[in-house]
Amino acid sequence: MFKFISLILRLFLYTVQGFLGLLWGLIKRKDPPNFSCDIVLITGGAQGLGRELALLFSSAGATIVLWDINQEKLRETVSEITARGCEAFGYVVDVSKREEIEEGAERVREEVGNVSVLVNNAGVLPGKLVKEFKEGEFEKTITVNFLSHYWTIKSFLPWMIENDYGHIVEMASFGSFSGGPLVSDYNSSKAAVYNFSESLHYELQLTGKKGVKVTCVCPWEMDTGFIPGRVKDFFSGAGIKKLSVGYVAAETLAAVCDGKFMIMLPKRYVVSAVLAFLSPRKIKDTVVGTYGYLKEEERMENEEELTNVIHYKKS
C-alpha cells in the first residue's frame, strides 16, 4: 500500500511539474538552437525519424554523421544535407554487429572528429507472436534496439566524460512501459532502453559531470511505415493518431536543448499512460480487451489465419 501511495504522489508531482514546465516554456523566450560546435551521430539516420533529426540538427549548425545499412538512402540524405550548405558524412554500419560499431566509431573519430551528440535511433519491429519467432529473430531485435545502444555509448561516452560535454539521445517508445501481443521483443527492448537511460543518467550525476546529458524519447507510433500491418490492426483501437516524424523530431531537439531527461509523445497522453501503468492487472486486462488487443486466438478461425493479418472487432 505504501508503495502504491508513493507512486501516486510521484505521478501527482510529475504532472504538476509538467504543467509548470509547459507554462514556463510558453513564457520564456528561447534562442534558436545552436549546434555549430557539435558533431551529431545518428544511427538509422538515412530515413524516417533519423533523417528528420539529421535535417533539424544540420539546420542548427551541426556536423552530421549518419549510420545506416541502406546505402542508397544514406547517400540521398547526405546529399540533401550538403546541398543546403551543411556538412554531413554517411557510413554503412550494421549496428547489430559490435565490431562494425567499434570500427565505425574509430573511423568517425579519425575522419570527422569527436562525437558530442549521439542519437541512438536505429530499430526493428518484426511484429510476431512469441511462438512464431525463428531461431535468432528475437535476439536480433534485442541486439538492434538495445545492445547497440550500449555499444555505441561505450564507444563515444569516454570522450564526453573526459570533456564534461555531450548529449546522448535514446529513442525508446510508449511501449517501454507496457506489454502487448506481437511486441514481446520490441517492447522488452524498449523497456531496457528506458531503464538503461535512467541508470546512465544517475551514474553521470554521481560522477559530477553535469555537462553530459541523457534524453530518453518515448513516442507513440509515427507515420514512417515502420510498424507492420498486423501490429497496427491490434493497436489501432487505442484511438491515438500516428505522430508525424517532423513533430517527434522537433520535440526531441527541444528536449535536448532544454536538457530534459525524458519526454513522452504525444504529451497529452502522459498522465493516461502512467495511470494505465499503475492500474491493477484486472482493470488493465479489461480495458485492453475492450480495445480488442486480447484474446486474438478466439477471433481466429484456424491456425493459418493467425500467421496472416490479425483482424478484430470491438465488442
From TrEMBL:
Signal sequence range: none
First-listed, main subcellular location of the protein, grouped into a coarse class: membrane
Molecular function in Gene Ontology: all-trans-retinol dehydrogenase (NADP+) activity
Record's bilayer topology term: Multi-pass membrane protein
Chain segments annotated as transmembrane: 7-27
Entry keyword set: Lipid metabolism, Membrane, NADP, Oxidoreductase, Transmembrane, Transmembrane helix
InterPro entries from the UniProt entry: NAD(P)-bd_dom_sf (IPR036291), Sc_DH/Rdtase_CS (IPR020904), SDR_fam (IPR002347)
Subcellular location: Membrane
Superkingdom of the source species: Eukaryota
Gene3D superfamilies from the UniProt entry: NAD(P)-binding Rossmann-like Domain
A Pfam family of this chain: adh_short
CC terms in the record's Gene Ontology section: lipid droplet; membrane
UniProt similarity note: Belongs to the short-chain dehydrogenases/reductases (SDR) family.
Biological role: Catalyzes the reduction of all-trans-retinal to all-trans-retinol in the presence of NADPH.
Official protein name in the record: Short-chain dehydrogenase/reductase 3
Gene this chain is encoded by: 100633883
